[in-house]
Design goal:
The chain is mainly alpha-helical. The chain is built from 4 helices and 2 strands. The chain has helices at about 25-30, 45-65, 70-110, 115-165; strands spanning about 5-10, 35. Strands 1-2 form a two-stranded antiparallel sheet. Helix 2 packs antiparallel against helix 3 and helix 3 runs antiparallel to helix 4 (about 115-165). The radius of gyration is 21 Å and the shape is elongated. It starts with 6 loop residues before the first strand and ends with a helix.
Length: about 170
Amino acid sequence: MLFASDYKPVSRQTQVSHNLCDLSPIAVLAMTSIILSNPQNLDLRTLGDITRQSLALLKPWTLLGNSTDNLVVQRVSAEAAQYVDAIKLGVSAAYSGFTVTEEVIFLAECLPCNDSADLQRYLVGMLELAKTARENANKAFDAFRSVRQQIALVRSLHRVSKANSCHFF
């Protein structure tokens, strides 16, 4: 299983000054890319930048909503909103993981500990933080997977719709 930490974003300086509806899906995907890399090579500043760029790219789609009669655009708009929510869950998961890491470092600096009861309470608290972090990561993973599945469904329905609307006389 792959996690967000397994990906290194590569940003491209892109200004989105045109209507997203005019772009092909390939053109939209070409604006940003994510490549697989080692987690220790992760550039968090770039990850933050690419997240902001992604949110900026998604914003116009989330605002479309039901303002159009095009059902495909409505579905994509709904999935864009779900993707924004998934990004928020991912940020929450990253924050939880960071908090757990800070606690582990703090504990390592405090060892050895003479009060075993205090150490036991601290470890139980860390375990709860770790469980929350894992739950947040799983929620984010599930949210991203759901969006991917729904977009694939919209694409296939759009292809079928286009094929059925082609008339040869």
